[in-house]
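so i finally got all the pieces together for this one. its two components total, 535 residues if u count the protein bits. some of the lines might not be protein, just check the labels. i wanna see the whole assembly predicted at once instead of chain by chain like last time, that was a mess tbh
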Amino acid sequence: MPLDRELDKTKVLFIDTCRRLMELGELSEEEYLGICDLLDRLDELDKDSFERELRRVSRGLSDLIG
Amino acid sequence: MSSSDVQRSLETLDLPVDVTAERQVLGILIKHPSLVDQVVDRLRPAHFMDLGHRRIYEIILDLYHGQGRISYTQVYNRLVAEGVASPADLLIALTESFVSLSELEPCVEILIRQEGLRRIIKACDTIKAMALDPKLEDLTGLQARAQELIFAATQSNGGAENEIKNLLEVLSQCYLNLLKRREGLEDAYGLSVRFPSIDGMTTGFKKGDLIILAARPSMGKTALLLNMVTNVAKRGIPVLVFSLEMDAEQLGDRIVLSELFTYKEGDRQAVTSYEYQTKLSDEQFQLTQKVFNDLYHLPISIVDKRGLTVAEIRAKARRFKAENPALGLIAIDYLQLIKPPGNTNRSWALIVGEMVRELRDLAGELDVPLILCSQLNRGVESRENKRPMMSDLRDSGNIEEFADVVMFLYRDDYYYPELAREKGTEGLAEVIFAKQRKGATGVVQLRFIKEYTRFIEETKRQEVNHALR
């Protein structure tokens, strides 16, 4: 459960950061929405699928994290 | 603002609140959306005192009803779209709020309890403010309003879980009723008014039903109503009568007179109506005293205040029911004398319709049959056949739409006394069942002894049996 809580907390911080990036023009709205959708489906994806999906929805963010 | 800051700030409102429990519930619901099903019919946004929490719960409900995914990202985006400050902080507090799913139920219970307490406190505050208002003039109005506020505040939160019955439960109750009828138990039927022909048509008035007893003036509505009321009370069942036309003493005299009809001396009445109202011999006085003694103990309560509103009737009936849980019947004489609510631009028909609907709701709320007398308009007089019809009620606000039973009272000799004498229908009264939601329509006959304001059975036994079948 503590790990779960940390994951949820990280998700909220992550999406908050992405929104700020969108406001700064670093991410498009389409990319932002793609990331939201990806986070919602996080439980369904393994690490490789997640990275692949993230690259698909936002090359810039993928490079940033990568 | 930290959790303890919010708690402290809400505590200054002097209301029961548990911000931690609110967070726990929201945290669990966002993390485990399938659990929304377990709380949706019990928790309303008002159960959350913290406005941020309340908004989050509203978003959760919105997503739930719109089949949307409930998640931190969805809730986050909705909060951002609504311009809520620091949505991330608000949500992070939720992620840290609970340890195990088993916390959900106790926390929901806490929120329901505290919201119930807050409603009571709020109602008391409102009543206090109204009572201290220097402009207050109408004490009766305030008392009625205060009762309404307290009643509303003390209603349980019972939600759909109590309203949804599966077929097994329904049929079990039906089967139980069937067995009671088979064994001839009295409570298998509705409330008997001890007129076999009427009971035969209705199988007794059902709890929660609104029964309209309508007729032209002087047809005998009040007499029949009082006869039924007395018959019910003779079995020890409490009855509450609202008499908006006659005062309580007039009703009392009518009840006594109606009972005196049953006493004969040889082939004449022991006490005539005229004698009762003028002077009695010693024997007649003793007999009348006996009738009084027989009637004293009947559980009939009368409200004879004129110009009551539906709200006042409701308040009085609720209080009576609270003090007399065995209340078995409410009777109101009559609809057109109920004071309509002020300051309304609606048509008379709409106002009457609304009053009737509210009275039907009252019958349901108190779980008793409610007999409502109603005048019929003059339209009846212009027809050759003056027997009332459903359409005669229509000008008065779709009364029939809300009624479970509509009974019309009609007497031939009222319109055609000579003809009635020739035809031998003098004194005969027809009770026309124009609508029965749970039974057949038809006509039964009673005999009206006008001098004694007393109805007696006229429909032959085999016809009553037929109606019962």
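Chain B touches chain A at residues 31, 69, 71-74, 76-77, 80, 87-88, 91-92, 95-96, 99-100 (CB under 8 Å).
The longest strand of chain B covers residues 428-436.
anyway lmk what u think
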